[in-house]
Amino acid sequence: MTEKKSRNKHQLPPEGVHTAKWIPYGYLYDPSSTALVKVDTEVAEYVRYIFQKYMEGMSIPQICKQLEEEGAPNPTLRRIQLGDTVREHADREHWNAASLNQFLFNPMYAGDFLLSGRVWDAVYYYSGDPVPEGITLPEIEENHHEALISHE
């Protein structure tokens, strides 16, 4: 039987260490860090900009347009810049409102790591509001790595 090659070019973390299989835009894989991620200083300000503008009331499509006007590399282009592979027809030029919406729910940007559960349900974890029936709160390790935004 031949051994399958991993599609993930990064080494696996040591036993018992949790790490994201997908490192979000704004972070880089760092095997020398105990958290296995570090801030991507080339694009970190764009992540902060996204949250700042959203909190100021700017719509997600407007934020996408502003990022394109600023020349901010979208997540696909950034992956290419870092030497990662992307889908053949992935958009390298435009920011996608649906993917940008996912930024707003991802606890990694606040320095927390999702151990189990869905990114979308992190909003209930942080809000303190009652959890709707059928929703399970995610398990989150707080202060896992350097945050790009505050919890507030």
As a percent range, the share of strand residues is 5-15%
The percent of residues in helical segments reads 25-40%
The main pleated sheet reads as:
2 strands, antiparallel
From the helix content, strand content and strand pairing, which structural class follows? alpha+beta
Terminal residue distance: 52 Å
Oligomer: single chain
**Total count of strands:** 4
Describe the structure.
The chain is an alpha+beta fold and 152 residues long. Helices cover 28% and strands 9% of the residues. The chain has five helices and four strands. The protein has helices at residues 44-55, 60-70, 75-81, 97-103, 122-127; strands at 27-29, 37-39, 113-116, 139-141. The strands form two sheets. A two-stranded antiparallel ribbon has the order 1-2. It has a two-stranded antiparallel ribbon with strand order 3-4. A hairpin with a 7-residue loop joins strand 1 (27-29) and strand 2.
Would you summarize the structure shown here?
This protein has 152 residues and is of the alpha+beta class. The chain has helices at 44-55, 60-70, 75-81, 97-103, 122-127, and strands spanning 27-29, 37-39, 113-116, 139-141.
Task: Write a concise keyword list for the protein shown above.
two-stranded antiparallel sheet
What is the topological layout?
Elements: E1 27-29, E2 37-39, H1 44-55, H2 60-70, H3 75-81, H4 97-103, E3 113-116, H5 122-127, E4 139-141
Antiparallel strand pairs: 1-2, 3-4
